[in-house]
């Protein structure tokens, strides 16, 4: 009987040791999982902020490109308008002479 009780105590202590080891492993696994979760919760906002800055930069570049394209298009239009006006002015001078709106007087050669 004493031999049986010793075996029971031995199995009980082994079982208790195994249970403590499993509990310690569970606590360690839970700590690791909690640390991973906290890291993920920290990384997500950082990643989202980075993505947001990248998207904002892309949109600002698009806006800058559109603005510069509009400026590039408006400058030639202004130059073309100025050239048209000067051309019309020169055509008027050719038609009407250098005196502006008064047609040139005919010159009679006195011989």
What is shown here, in short?
With 111 residues, the protein is an all-alpha fold.
The total strand number stands at 0
If helices are DSSP runs of H or I spanning 4 or more residues, what is the number of helices? 1
* Unreliable stretches: none
Task: For the record, give the distance between the C-alpha atoms at the N and C termini, rounded to a whole number.
Answer: 163 Å
Beta-sheet strand percentage? under 5%
Mean pLDDT: 85
User: Which structural class do you get from the secondary structure elements?
Assistant: mainly alpha
Helix content: over 70%
Compute the CA-based radius of gyration: 47 Å
Describe the sheet with the most strands: none
- Gross morphology is rod-shaped
How many distinct domains?
Answer: 1
**Secondary-structure element sequence?**
H
Description:
This protein is mainly α and 111 residues long. The chain has one helix spanning 2-96. The chain has one helix and no strands. 0% of the residues are buried. The chain has one domain. The protein starts with a helix and ends in a 15-residue tail after the last helix. Helix content is 86%, strand content 0%.
Element layout with pairings:
Blueprint: H1 2-96
Keywords:
mainly alpha
């Amino acid at each position: 009987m004493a031999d049986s009780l010793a075996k029971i105590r031995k199995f009980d202590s082994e079982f208790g040791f195994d249970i403590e080891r499993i509990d310690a492993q569970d606590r360690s696994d839970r700590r690791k999982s909690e640390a991973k979760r906290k890291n993920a919760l920290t990384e997500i906002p950082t990643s989202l902020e980075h993505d947001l800055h990248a998207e904002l930069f892309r949109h600002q570049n698009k806006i800058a490109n559109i603005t510069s394209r509009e400026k590039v298009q408006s400058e030639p239009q202004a130059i073309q308008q100025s050239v048209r006006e000067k051309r019309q002015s020169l055509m008027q001078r050719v038609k009407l002479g250098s005196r502006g709106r008064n047609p040139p007087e005919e010159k009679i050669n006195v011989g």
